[in-house]
Write a structure and sequence with these properties.
The chain has 5 helices and 6 strands, in the order E-H-E-E-H-E-H-E-H-E-H. By secondary structure, the protein is α/β, with parallel strands linked by helices. It has a single domain, classed as Rossmann fold (3-Layer(aba) Sandwich), CATH 3.40.50.450. Helix 1 links the parallel strand 1 and strand 2. It is globular. The C terminus is likely disordered.
């Protein structure tokens, strides 16, 4: 399995950090120049995430479309405000319909969110086999302040747990999981 994301602050970044921390392959498309709201100058976020590939356009919409297009399934993580707070997340939902990608939209604060996410990931893995691509996205940090630390890494943790068969209680989660991947040992 490979986790992809566009690398924007918030959900995208949490997905990448959790994948790195758990030793899951990562990648995806990012805008030309590696642009993200907190990395506005080239080489941008590619300094920290060298496996991201720049699109020809600096427009984040191309990055979003190419990540949806190239994935087998899409996991969208939101908070209580839903997808409406984010133009990019709204675009991604429309693109999942256009490209007919299986999609789960989840708020990790929902009581059964981790159980649902883990089951959904297991179903996708069974359907696509080991070499499948899961694109994870959602609002950027400026659209949903605190989404990285409070919510976004939870589903990515479920992905890693499912991939490696790690023991993880789906009723518990670790706030900010993966925030400091440089000091976290990757799991085999």
């Amino acid at each position: 399995m490979k986790v992809t994301s566009g690398g924007q602050s918030g959900v995208d970044r949490a997905a990448l950090d959790a994948a790195i921390a758990c030793g899951v392959e990562y990648g995806g498309w990012c805008p030309r120049g590696g642009w993200a709201e907190d990395f506005p100058q080239p080489p941008g976020l590619r300094v920290n995430y060298p496996r991201l590939i720049e699109t020809p356009s600096a427009d984040p919409a191309q990055r979003t479309e190419w990540n949806v297009r190239d994935a087998n399934a899409i996991l969208i993580v939101v908070d209580e405000a839903g997808i409406a707070v984010s133009k990019g997340t709204t675009l991604a939902v429309g693109l999942t319909e256009r490209y007919r990608r299986p999609t789960l939209i989840i708020d990790p604060n929902e009581p059964d969110a981790l159980v649902r996410t883990t089951a959904w990931v297991a179903e996708r893995r069974d359907a696509f086999g080991d070499a499948w691509v899961l694109s994870i996205g959602g609002p950027r940090e400026s659209e949903a302040p605190g989404i990285y630390a409070a919510r976004a890494a939870v589903p990515a943790r479920c992905v890693a747990d499912r991939q490696f068969g790690l023991k993880h209680d789906p009723e518990k989660w670790e706030p900010g999981f993966g925030q400091d991947h440089a000091q976290t040992k990757a799991r085999p």
